[in-house]
Amino acid sequence: MNIPLSPLQPQPQRQKERYIPVKHKFLISHVVAWLWMGISIYLSIPWLKDLKNLIGFPLAVVVITGLAYIPGYLTAFFVISLLLDRQPPFKTEDPKRPVTILIAARNEAKRIANTIAYIAKQDYNGDIHLLLVDNDSSDGTAQVAKEAADQCQLPIEILEEKELGKFHALNRGLAHVRTDYVITLDADTLLHRSAVRYLIARMESAPADVCAVAGAVLVRNSRENLLTKMQEWDYFLGIASIKRMQGLYQGTLVAQGAYSLYKVECLRTVGGWPNAIGEDIVLSWRLLERGWKIYFEPQAVAFTDVPSSWRHFCRQRARWARGMIEALKAVKPWQQPQGFVKYLTMINLVLPYLDAVYTLCWLPGFIAAWFGYYYIVGPMTLWVIPLSLLAYGALYRYQRYVFRMLGLRVRRNRVGFVLFVLCYQMIMSPVSFFGYLQEWFRLQRIWK
Description:
Layout: H1 22-43, H2 45-55, H3 57-84, E1 99-105, H4 112-120, E2 128-134, H5 141-151, E3 156-160, H6 166-174, E4 181-185, E5 189-191, H7 195-205, E6 210-219, H8 226-248, E7 259-263, H9 264-269, H10 279-289, E8 293-304, H11 310-330, H12 339-369, H13 384-406, H14 414-440
Parallel strand pairs: 1-2, 1-4, 2-3, 6-8
Antiparallel strand pairs: 4-7, 5-8, 6-7
Helix pairs in contact: 1-3, 2-3, 3-12, 3-13, 4-5, 8-13, 8-14, 10-11, 11-14, 12-14
């Protein structure tokens, strides 16, 4: 089946939509967001007075700003940006540039064969070089990978890296890459058959100053339990919406190591992956610091297994939060040369404050509300939900359309969606807050 490469390309019977410059989209989104926050401030005056009598005016402003004003402003900005977003069509539909797929693996013998089988099924017409770096595995990962590649008749080069740490393994592989492009792929991530083609088509269609393209990573094991069901919607709607918004402003802040395409020359210019627990986050910010752009391609889809236990989930998300702090310390937002990227990274400066207020104030206030005390949690705190539903609705329609073009089907997961909308933030903010504290106190880093 021939799959159209750009579902957003206008249909022949429709008149071509008028293009709105990115600067105008940015301005329009901000006007709406500031109006929303102004209305919220006006309507919250009674709430502010009640809370002031309890904890004082300055602290009341700090709490309400973190619970309502800033979240409402950011959500409105995201919604309008998503509604205005139009992905440009590909200039080339069948790229043939040779590419290396780099996999850093440690004790992945159970998963690596399946990952390689999906690489072998790609419909990409260019040469694919598979490079696996075994990071001191003890379960025979390298041997299993070689046997799987031989069975699929896929050439593979296997290297060993004894020094533990994903960034060590990736940099070891980078030194042996002989193509202009490299795709990093986690050992448990499965590629859609057109994933490589879409990713490189976006890069080949992009301006010369684009150094990386992040792919769309979605959840494969969502049927395991309620935790994975919630994460399915987080990847499908939450993370995808943030990356689409950032991609619109030409500054996707994380070209995730699980599945992204990079120009090798750019990677070597910044010294490869840094010694950080969030190595892909810090790398992305260093690339952006050079004035390069990072795009996001929602049609380049891969599927990964997400944590199914609370322990592994909390460890992963705390690591992500800690990686964001590492990036903020490595490259200050005001050091970013591009205006849009400067703004997007500035948002990350606010996130620890929002997560702290939510963890330390909203959750206790939520418990108090059950006993009839609405000083902190009340009707005003629900104002963000309609905006969130509007954003998720718009993105769901887009994602479902992309899935249909890719020959995929969106799973029915209503329970997971309800839990994601109502409960996910209650989980994420405390976990992220813990990650910030880990970095603040420089606790031991755990890669996996």
